[in-house]
Please model this.
Amino acid sequence: MARLEVTETFAGVRLPGHLHTQESLALAGAFQFRPSDVLLVTYPKSGTTWVQEILTLIYSAGDPALVKTIPNWTRNPWLEHVYFKELPQETNRPRLLTTHMPQQVLAAALRTCKPKVIYVARNPKDVAVSFYHFHKIANFLPDPGSFSDFLQHFLDGTVHFGSWFQHIKGWLGCQEKLGLFFITYEELHQDLQRCVERLSAFLGCPLQPDQIASVCQHCSFTSMSKNIMVNHTLLSPEIIDLSKGSFFRKGITEDWRNHFSPQQSELFNQIYQKEMGDCCLSVVWHMD
Ligand code: PPS
Model:
């Protein structure tokens, strides 16, 4: 499966044909969840891999054996990817699932059998920067052009995976109905230990202080960037070309300040205000 030049459109969203087919996307929409499932939902570049690592470590009580021996796409697979149907579904552990899908694709499946849903969000200015750099190394995404060109597509919602605004508004719109646990990349940065405690309480998986310390140690940027199960070195350079940049690029907040001109920042803020003004989002990112 390479299909590096193919783009699929599903539910109005453009997706890379590498790893997505109409069949795999339809299967995601019809997926039979179980109440014991844990579904991690993100817009790309929001902290997906970080939280995948945290979830595996929480369910392993801080033991790094699994995160060091099984790739993240096998232990926390994306529902919508082509290989998903091949993965064994019978397990006595909670299934840790991941998705970038917009809410409307999974709404029906989630309504019938409520898994635990975790939504991770990140300052969209930093998402745009991280996504831009990822386009340069991911050969299954289009050439991003200049940062200015890419930012315009990001704001228009014409990038692959669709509009950041529609994604977050869609999922937050059913926060109560799904009992969705909302957390941000910025909170993980500010107080990782507290976030691990909150997540483990939400999952009904309480940990001892030494186990929490071990989770935090093994999901640090330094540990993860060296872990071949997540740092993308297992992938062929035809798919992800790490000679052009790193998947674990900077791992910081507010890198947007190094990329946005004052005019781009102002335009972004105007659109953010227009799109998010009525939204119940209580997080205030540093947008100025
Ligand atoms: S993807 O492709 O959607 O799965 O990408 P995703 O994992 O959501 O986001 C990648 C960005 O998250 C950063 N990252 C981390 N930051 C801090 N600490 C840890 N442990 C960590 N793990 C991943 C990663 O560096 C990408 O952000 P940028 O800003 O590009 O560095």
Notes: Residues 42, 44-50, 130, 133, 219-221, 224, 248-251, 255 surround PPS (CB under 6 Å).
